[in-house]
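BUG: 3D viewer hangs when loading the predicted structure for this chain

Environment: internal workstation, default settings.
Expected: structure renders.
Actual: progress bar stalls at 90%.

Input used:
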Amino acid sequence: MKRLLLATRNEGKVRELRALLASEPIQTETLATHPEASDVEESGKTFDENARLKSAHAARSTGLWTLGEDSGLEADALDGAPGVRSARYAGVQGDAAANNARLMRELAGVEDRRARYVCVVALANPDGEIVATARGTCEGWLLEEPHGSGGFGYDPYFVPERGECTMAELELAQKDAISHRGQALRSFIPLLRLHLCLEEEPSG
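Structure tokens produced before the viewer hung:
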């Protein structure tokens, strides 16, 4: 069975990525079991740049095919912020409560609550060369108060377009069906199958 490294330590992302890849004949591993792969500075100005950085660095460190992912929230009224700084918007990496608190402070009294989740995934070969990328978005808006205990990040405040509840109120399968990460992975899987030789390349 082919091995695929998921270049993240975020348990929420790992859970969703593994659910989306569950039907593929691959063994997924994470950075939690690869101490030789240090964290890389997310210095990119776009989700695409950061996904590529993460994937290439982890692949070169481990010699494994690697899926790197970068994602976040863009609020229209904040000119796209938090954007690539979504996970560290309040200054500390992964502090969801602080990140949400800052976002709500900045949107206090703002009528335009439109926002979107964005996800970019990048596949690197064992030499660190990026061979495929895919992007997914989920449009919606932000509530003033949190609802739900599922998901992670900004999910308790984010209501997807045409939805009636937040991402945090959805079951994992429901969320994956409409989420930015789900959309990115569904368009990415055919490329993953091709590069990992999980299926034969179609003849031209």
